[in-house]
Backbone:
């Protein structure tokens, strides 16, 4: 083939099907685009009025009407905005997207106007063809002497345009729905779509059935408005009843006063709130306003803990409200919803490019007119500006939390148990956020007091220093020898009820522990340990500390005898057994599991590796027997007793119950054995 040089050709024939079918991910989004175009047209007319270039007629009320007609299979979108001339229809509608793109981008690259690219490219309008076989436009420009325009297109590459008959400025778009999209001429379906995308657009939006019979309502005459259409004045006489008084005499009593009522045409109810709460200044909003908005938008009737009102004009425009919801972790999944808006136009939920990942656990709205949207207004362009927005949101949340901790520690502690999952997740995901919150992370101890990480370290350092005094005296090494930094151990509890035995032992020994019961806590403490090599976290049943041990050591022969005895009676040759002299003589047996093994087990659970044997990773519990307890002493001296097996099994299960939940089979055997033991008592 001979060498050939030419130009790529992009025209309406090959680009139009793409616009109609693939530009938008959701077909119902056409409603957002057409309503939004109507709102833009009204906004532009308002600006002209403010500039003195246009005067509104008497009783002008800006509105977008959506009319459904199931009989004709049509949808109409009507606005009383700026309208278009024939030339403007040619420019904005018929010259699809790419012909004027360069000129437009050059003109509006500084984003100094509120004009939207989507409107100038005409792509928003063409979303109508995803649901319609044919589309009509009737429009009249606000300009004096303008001629109305009637434009039609059947979804192909040809259109017709002629003089129309519209008499008032604005635009009316009629969609003749295709067979696959007839759901959209149903009033209830369209209400759902409009409420999804258009609930907070800056213009009132009304939905009605076309050619529906007039509906009426009756109101008190004193509530009559100037714009109400009065059908009838109604006077209702006072209502009386004959009743018996205290003396037993009958008398006529007024039960309802006389009323002057008015029958009027039913008032239309807007589906949008043109002045949403986030557009107001925080000083204008009461606590009840925030709570009511939360209930309305998120259909959550549990009150939020608190909220952050974002209100920024420089270096970019961003407004919004973020709510920290109250979560019942036993039943609720921790999954929030952040609704993203662009000039009060709904874009999508939970767009991760704008909203930091950890804040997706929250609920709220964010409105940023400066977002670099693509031409379908459905997704973000890859822009470094987006990252700045994300960082700002993260910073504002951090500032709110640190400020609350500094100025209102009591409220901060009250909220902590609920908000800690958000904060801990944020610290793991965002290093800057972690740095800001480092000194404001709280740990609740076994006495329900809240400590900072610094408090925990200081408290445990004292204990460690006392333990190391004698060791340091004996083990002096050369200064040149490299040694690992000494670690401060912070003990924790995952289940205060189940681990109550260990907690009581800790209290008796004068030691403290913090409660870490949420599933985020395991990765969080690993994160802290990675950031600070001088601290380590251990569950209170990970090992026996010196404070829990009494004087002396258990006899080696006794330890060997008990080990063999328990392995035999429990039918477990691999059972790890230790015999110790514990200070608390009331504890016969307890379980320990190394911290490393426990974390491995937690990881296995996280990744649903339930079929694997924890012992493969050294996940073997150790049974600790208290040599000072009478039961243990009895077993050591009476190996051949008839009750030895039962006692061994019961001690093992009791120790395990304080450590973790028994399996259904293990629990069944434990209950049966407990009943048998009780029966033995009755036989004495």
Residues:
């Amino acid at each position: 083939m001979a060498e050939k040089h030419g130009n790529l050709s992009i025209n309406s024939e090959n680009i139009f099907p793409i616009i109609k079918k693939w530009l938008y991910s959701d077909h119902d989004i056409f409603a957002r685009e057409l309503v939004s175009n109507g709102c833009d047209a009204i906004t532009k007319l308002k600006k002209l009025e403010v500039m003195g270039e246009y005067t509104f007629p008497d009783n002008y009320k800006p509105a977008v009407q959506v009319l459904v007609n199931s009989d004709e299979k049509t949808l109409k979108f009507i606005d009383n905005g700026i309208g278009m001339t024939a030339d403007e229809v040619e420019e904005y509608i018929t010259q699809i997207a790419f012909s004027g793109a360069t000129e437009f981008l050059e003109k509006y690259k500084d984003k100094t106007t509120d004009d939207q690219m989507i409107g100038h490219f005409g792509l928003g309008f063409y979303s109508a063809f995803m649901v319609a076989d044919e589309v009509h436009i009737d429009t009249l420009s606000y300009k004096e002497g303008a001629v109305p325009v009637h434009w039609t297109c059947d979804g192909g590459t040809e259109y017709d345009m002629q003089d129309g008959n519209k008499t008032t400025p604005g635009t009316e778009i009629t969609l003749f729905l295709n067979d696959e999209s007839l759901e959209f001429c149903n009033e209830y379906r369209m209400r759902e779509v409009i409420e999804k995308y258009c609930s907070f657009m800056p213009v009132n939006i009304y939905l009605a059935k076309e050619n529906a019979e007039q509906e009426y309502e009756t109101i008190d005459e004193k509530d009559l408005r100037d714009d109400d259409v009065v059908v009838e004045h109604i006077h209702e006489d006072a209502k009386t009843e004959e009743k018996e008084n205290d003396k037993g005499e009958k008398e006529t009593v007024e039960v309802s006063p006389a009323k002057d009522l008015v029958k009027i045409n039913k008032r239309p109810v807007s589906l949008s709130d043109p002045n949403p709460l986030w557009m107001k200044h925080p000083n204008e909003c009461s606590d009840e306003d925030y709570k009511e908005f939360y209930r309305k938008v998120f259909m959550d009737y549990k009150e939020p803990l608190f909220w952050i009102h974002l209100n920024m004009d420089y270096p970019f425009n961003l407004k919004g409200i973020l709510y920290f919801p109250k979560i019942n972790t036993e039943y609720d999944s921790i999954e929030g919803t952040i609704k993203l808006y662009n000039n009060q136009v709904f874009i999508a939920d939970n767009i991760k490019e704008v909203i930091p990942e950890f804040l997706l656990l929250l609920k709220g709205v964010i409105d940023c007119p400066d977002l670099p949207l693509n031409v379908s207004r459905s997704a973000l362009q890859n822009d470094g500006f987006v990252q700045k927005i994300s960082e700002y949101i993260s910073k504002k949340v951090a500032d709110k939390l640190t400020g609350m901790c500094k100025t209102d520690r009591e409220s901060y502690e009250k909220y902590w148990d609920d908000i800690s999952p958000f904060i801990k997740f944020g610290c793991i995901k965002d290093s800057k956020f972690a740095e800001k919150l480092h000194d404001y992370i709280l740990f609740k101890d076994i006495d329900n007091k809240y400590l900072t990480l610094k408090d925990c370290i200081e408290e445990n350092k004292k204990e460690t220093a006392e333990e190391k005094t004698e060791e340091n005296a004996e083990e002096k090494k050369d200064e040149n020898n490299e040694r690992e930094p000494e670690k401060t151990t912070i003990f924790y509890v995952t289940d205060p009820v189940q681990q109550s035995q260990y907690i009581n032992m800790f209290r008796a020994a004068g030691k403290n522990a913090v409660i870490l019961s949420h599933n985020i806590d395991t990765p969080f403490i690993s994160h802290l340990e990675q950031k600070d090599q001088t601290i380590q976290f251990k569950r209170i049943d990970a090992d026996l500390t010196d404070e829990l041990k009494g004087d002396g050591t258990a006899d080696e022969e006794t330890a060997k005898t008990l080990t063999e005895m328990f392995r035999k009676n429990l039918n477990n040759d691999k059972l790890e057994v230790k015999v110790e002299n514990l200070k608390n003589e009331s504890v016969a047996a307890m379980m320990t599991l190394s911290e490393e093994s426990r974390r491995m087990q937690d990881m296995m659970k996280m990744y649903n590796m339930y079929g694997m044997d924890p012992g493969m990773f050294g996940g073997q519990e150790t049974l600790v027997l208290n040599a000072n307890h009478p039961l243990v002493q009895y077993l050591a001296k009476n190996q051949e007793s008839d009750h030895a097996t039962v006692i061994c099994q019961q001690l093992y299960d009791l120790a395990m119950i304080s450590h973790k939940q028994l399996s259904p089979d293990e629990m069944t055997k434990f209950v049966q054995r407990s009943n048998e033991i009780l029966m033995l008592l009755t036989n004495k």
About this structure: Residues 548-682 form a domain with the Four Helix Bundle (Hemerythrin (Met), subunit A) fold (CATH 1.20.120.790). Residues 384-407 form the longest helix (24 residues).
